[in-house]
């Protein structure tokens, strides 16, 4: 049985004195109580046991985070939320901003690569699993690359509050909304029209996302993890 990694008590004491003992992550289900030492750059990625790289986290958040990286401390994840049937709008938005080698994870492209029509095929579940697998891989990537994720619903069966998780980890979240009439007009059947209505029922907007991101980034700045005005927070020495 592997020995549990132990932080020097002097480091823990300085972390608490400097940044407090409230959970720094604030993931869905957070208890707020800093019960464990959490590495900003994960220990598995070579993160050090230093005051600069340790913050206190509750047991729930430390377990839920796993090795997912904070934006700018590994991969920089850009999530583009778009209504059903409008993924082409998200791809157009991304193509105008991505670098040539930036990976793009999009369900419609995954379906196309499998040679299937996602909306009418039984392999739709496999497409969703492929998207989730790619997301998990990039979310734990320690390399400083930019990754673009196209997503319709900001939730999944395993992560019902996915948007809250993205904001907690400081992902760059963008809403590309062509408008209800346009999205509804592209829906090919009753099921797709139902999904469009469901998406607009969430009342997602860039203004709402920006307000939540601003509050989260102010918290990260207070924890010494981000400069609020800096889109790419400095990365500590690994």
UniProtKB/TrEMBL annotation:
Pfam families: HNH. The keyword rRNA-binding does not apply. Signal peptide: none annotated. One of its GO terms (molecular function) is nucleic acid binding. Keywords: Endonuclease, Hydrolase, Nuclease. The keyword Nuclease applies. InterPro entries: HNH (IPR002711), HNH_nuc (IPR003615). Residues 10-63 form the HNH nuclease domain. This is HNH endonuclease. It comes from Bifidobacterium cebidarum.
